[in-house]
Structures are given as structure tokens and as C-alpha cells.
């Protein structure tokens, strides 16, 4: 009623009363064309660039908190398991960073040696 779902509806004594036309439309809706889905142009980035490692960093930060919580409630086994997963994620992030840095420096060195010749 207030949201506009049933235009012209009234509530009298706790019962919803609709005009006949609105009730007929609810019971047997007229065939409407499917709504057009707007197309999104992804050629230009919009807003902040999202990091590819963002979710993994969020996991590492959250795991530190939950590890402390698990230890405080007396669940050291689960805390150790979570700490292990966190250390694996950190090692993976560090490895990925080192590989990308090495690749970037290799390309810079190749570019500089080509310009000397």
C-alpha cells in the first residue's frame, strides 16, 4: 500500500481492499515485455582499483583476531590450525610479491640493456 505495490488499496478493519482492476491484474497479470537489462561499459575503470590480493590480506588480518579468540575460549587446536593457514597465506603473498618484483626488475634490466646497444 504505502510502498506502491498495490495502488489504490485500502485497509479497512484489518482487511486489504483493492479496486477490481488491481485485483484482476494481480490474479492474472497482463503479459509484459521482459525488462531491459542495462549494459555496463567496462572499458573505463570506475572508482578505486581493487587489489587482487585484498581478500587474502583480509583473511590474514581476520585470522589473527580469531586465533586470539579461539585461544581465549580454550580451543588451542583450532587456533593452531588457523595460525597455520594464516602462515601459509602470508608465505603465498610474500612469494607472489617476490615473483612479481623479480619479473618487473628483469623487464627493467632487459629494457636498459637493449637501449645501450
Main sheet summary: 2 strands, antiparallel
Secondary structure tally, helices:
3
- Global morphology: flat
N-to-C span: 79 Å
The neighbouring-strand order within the major sheet is 1-2
Offer a few descriptive terms.
117 residues; mainly alpha; 3 helices; 2 strands; 58% helix
Question: What would you note in describing this structure?
Answer:
The chain has 117 residues and is mostly helical. 58% of the residues lie in helices and 5% in strands. A two-stranded antiparallel sheet has the order 1-2. Strand 1 and strand 2 form a beta hairpin. The mean pLDDT is 78.
Topology, please?
Blueprint: E1 10-12, E2 15-17, H1 20-27, H2 54-72, H3 76-116
Antiparallel strand pairs: 1-2
Helix pairs in contact: 2-3
Amino acid at each position: 500500500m504505502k510502498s506502491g505495490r498495490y495502488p489504490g488499496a485500502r485497509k479497512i478493519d484489518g482487511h486489504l481492499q483493492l479496486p477490481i482492476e488491481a485485483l484482476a491484474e494481480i490474479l492474472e497479470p497482463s503479459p509484459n515485455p521482459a525488462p531491459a537489462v542495462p549494459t555496463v561499459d567496462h572499458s573505463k575503470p570506475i572508482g578505486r582499483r581493487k587489489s587482487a590480493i585484498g581478500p587474502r590480506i583480509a583473511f590474514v588480518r581476520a585470522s589473527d583476531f580469531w586465533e586470539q579468540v579461539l585461544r581465549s575460549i580454550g580451543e588451542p587446536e583450532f587456533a593452531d590450525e588457523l595460525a597455520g593457514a594464516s602462515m601459509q597465506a602470508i608465505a603465498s603473498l610474500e612469494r607472489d610479491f617476490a615473483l612479481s618484483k623479480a619479473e618487473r626488475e628483469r623487464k627493467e634490466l632487459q629494457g636498459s640493456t637493449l637501449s645501450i646497444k
